[in-house]
Specification:
Layout: E1 17-24, H1 49-65, E2 70-74, H2 78-91, E3 95-97, H3 125-130, H4 150-167, E4 172-177, H5 179-189, E5 197-198, E6 203-209, E7 212-220, H6 222-225, E8 239-242, E9 245-248, E10 253-254
Parallel strand pairs: 1-4, 2-3, 2-4
Antiparallel strand pairs: 1-6, 5-10, 6-7, 8-9
Helix pairs in contact: 1-2, 4-5
């Protein structure tokens, strides 16, 4: 069905302005053979050094395309917060951690409730602000339920995105989330969009004319694919320590039709 926001072919819209980017996080450490930094919480892995570079290049692309004030939101899972932090460095802003952008809390993925045991809750306030650029004044607009099924997960992503758009009607919002988040939001806005593959740091760009939203491109990772080997080197070490808190700053994933029993993208 058509998006509740409305959807229109871009060729028919003349006053469009970029309103949002939806970004999948960078490469996660548990998706490589040997992670340089140990994974302290298996349910909340950090980014690899390559993932940090992917986030940086993505930020440069978005900065070249966006105009006006930018607000960065992120899932509370570490791989998303680290991706968002690198983006926020490029835009010189903070990261607003939004629970509604969290990973799909499927019980088979998370036998135990992960909500209170995420890395961002375990590090010092200084590390949150200085290393992860978290905006301590922001309060999440969504409360998570555990466990959740596919319909609840999809609705959560859609309603959270709607809320963030309504909060910032004159800003460009950058939403850093997980694969199913990118898919759910993109396919809801445009019924003709069907995402079957999504690389790390794949981008969906959304423009708006009043209440009409349109997708300019979906799940595009061409900015990542054109990196040279030298450009894939890390911007910084994969991990460092602040006041005893270790903040790790360390491809393609095929998306089948969403299956409640065999989800593969996160």
């Amino acid at each position: 069905t058509q998006s509740t926001w409305g959807c229109m072919n871009r060729s028919r819209v003349f006053n469009m302005s970029i309103t949002a980017f939806i970004v999948r996080h960078g490469e996660r450490a548990d998706d490589v053979m040997l992670a340089a930094t140990p994974i302290e919480r298996v349910h909340d892995p950090h980014l690899t050094a390559k993932g940090i570079r992917q986030a940086h290049v993505s930020a440069l692309r978005m900065k070249s395309e966006a105009s006006g004030p930018v607000v960065v939101f992120s899932s509370p899972f570490l791989r998303c917060v680290q991706t968002a932090a690198e983006i926020a460095r490029v835009f010189d802003c903070k990261v607003k951690v939004e629970k509604g952008l969290s990973e799909f809390l499927l019980e088979s993925w998370f036998p135990e409730d992960p909500r209170s045991d995420l890395t961002i809750h375990a590090v010092s306030e200084e590390a949150q602000v200085q290393d992860l650029r978290i905006d301590s004044d922001y309060s999440s607009r969504c409360e998570l339920s555990y466990p959740e099924d596919i319909s609840a997960m999809t609705e959560r992503y859609i309603q959270t995105f709607r809320s963030l758009l309504e909060m910032h009607p004159n800003d460009v919002i950058i939403v850093v989330t997980h694969g199913y988040g990118v898919q759910s939001i993109s396919e809801h806005i445009d019924e003709d969009t069907f995402i079957t593959e999504l690389d790390y740091c794949g981008l969906t760009r959304i423009s708006r004319d009043q209440s009409v939203l349109t997708i300019d491109y979906a799940a595009d990772a061409s900015h990542i694919e054109t990196l040279t080997e030298s450009e894939k080197q890390p911007l910084q070490k994969e991990g460092h320590t602040r006041d005893g808190d270790t903040i790790v700053l360390s491809d393609q994933c095929t998306m089948p039709q969403v299956s409640e029993t065999e989800p593969v993208l996160s």
